[in-house]
From TrEMBL:
The lineage of its organism: Bacteria, Pseudomonadati, Pseudomonadota, Gammaproteobacteria, Chromatiales. This is CDP-diacylglycerol--glycerol-3-phosphate 3-phosphatidyltransferase. One of its GO terms (biological process) is glycerophospholipid biosynthetic process. It comes from the Bacteria. It is a multi-pass membrane protein. It comes from Candidatus Sedimenticola endophacoides.
Amino acid sequence: MRREDIPNLISILRIFLTIPVVWLLLEQRFGWALVLFFIAGVSDGLDGYLAKRNGWESRLGGLLDPLADKVLLVSSFLSLALIGVVPVWLVLLVILRDLVIVTGALVYHYRIAELEAAPSMLSKINTTAQIILVLSVVLDRGLLALPQWLIVSLVWVVCLTTIASGLDYVWVWSRRAVRIGDRHD
């Protein structure tokens, strides 16, 4: 293993960290789940910091880092829906958005042009809202009762940002595909 591989290794470990997080959530051991979320958050910052600071950025790292985030978030959402603390419809909406984006990215990459993916600002806002919702629900169930209106508000913020970011991706990448298609005609 080379030093340059450390950020990718951290991302891979974060993917494996999903397994105990899911188990803890399903067992409703929310305090320990928060501890592992904290570790995942620190590792997310650490791998990015190391990659940027030392010039260890790679195409694999560019895929692994968001994949690790998405695996942890979607697994957490599914677990919280299974125990009835997050609406199933919201989880389905989050998964549908991700499927639309991944499908569109694959079609674009293989049918239009090489894809250099970068998250949009709306996507970053959506991811942040999702993280805040998961942490708030886990915190509410484990350590500190939060006002119900706050949790409900966060559910609707995630709903709206999920729809907005999904539509944004479809709009932006459809327009790019049309522009590239026009150049090839």
